[in-house]
Amino acid sequence: MKQLTIISGKGGTGKTTITSAFAHLAENSVLADSDVDAADLHLILEPEVKHQEPYSGGSVAVIDEQKCTGCGICVEKCRFDAIRNFKVDPISCEGCTFCTYVCPEGAIVMAPQISGNWFVSSTRAGTMVHAKLGIAEDNSGKLVSVVRQNAKEIAEKDRLDTVIIDGPPGIGCPVIASITGSDMVLVVTEPTLSGLHDMERVLDTAKHFKIPAMVCVNKYDINPENTEKIEVRCREKGVRVVGCLPYDKAVTQAMILKKSVAEHDCGEVTKAVVKMWREVRQILTADTASAGKA
């Protein structure tokens, strides 16, 4: 069982477009949307929730009114000003637990805080594990790990060949949680100078964790000069460019219809995505130790 994570240095490069297409082209796969801060794979695949569980990403202080003597030490010591009138504001509380140590009466305890929910759903492209964070909730990467672990367990239980992971953008903790343990990452970029810079950062992140990487240039034809710069930089880094997708308004039309570019005929884009998936699948099934070489 192989795990492929699709990531990018910034949002809006086309990760979910490619993930949804791969989901329809792949056989025996399970999907994981680990972009839990701004999940959108469900907008295309329209999942039907089969299982749901709450997610607790941390804890919040709670004051036992029966034990509290109103001494005010907790109010004085809380650096986040989360305690007012001897009640804890759960939004302001950072869960540092300091108040539990300074309370002389032991009147403050830490209680789990529900930060969101994670789901196992069925889609027309197979089983999908995804999540939804609550408003203003933190994502330290823990929820990403929960989503990935459950997707992996489903793949192992059902003897599926591949876990396809729609990753978050950037190089922060959620990205690290998305790629750790993956067999391969596919970095999606655009032919702009910022796209080149962001691609290099995320490639360096993958290299740091010793995960082979491939690159796809989306909308390559809007700036062929920058596309060439990206290809040159990839050759210098020993990274294979497995796909160059042209710009086509038909992709937007497919999104409006809630269809992947593998379901909706987007001309050359669909052909390029199919060709790219065949190459990616071949690389995944080959020796991953040499898969990232150009």
Beta fraction? 25-35%
Class by SSE composition: alpha/beta
Supply the CATH architecture of the largest domain: 3-Layer(aba) Sandwich
pLDDT averaged residue by residue? 92
Percent of residues in helical segments?
A: 25-40%
Cα(first) to Cα(last) distance is: 24 Å
- Topology as a string of helices (H) and strands (E): EHEHEHEEHEEHEHEHEHEHH
- Please tell me the total number of domains: 2
| Separate helix tally | 10
Shape: elongated
Strand line-up of the largest beta sheet:
3-6-7-2-8-1-9-10-11
Low-confidence stretches: 288-294
Rg, nearest Å: 22 Å
**CATH homologous superfamily name of the largest domain?**
P-loop containing nucleotide triphosphate hydrolases
At the fold tier of CATH, the topology name of the largest domain is Rossmann fold
| DSSP strand tally | 11
Major β-sheet annotation: 9 strands, mixed
What is the highest CATH level, the class of the largest domain? Alpha Beta
Describe it for me?
This protein has helices spanning 15-25, 41-45, 73-77, 98-102, 142-157, 173-179, 193-208, 224-237, 249-256, 268-285, and strands spanning 2-8, 29-33, 48-63, 83-84, 87-88, 108-123, 126-133, 162-169, 184-189, 213-218, 240-245. By secondary structure, the protein is an alpha/beta fold. The protein has a 9-stranded mixed sheet, with helices on both faces. Strands 4-5 form a two-stranded antiparallel ribbon. A hairpin with a 2-residue loop joins strand 4 and strand 5 (87-88). The relative contact order is 0.20.
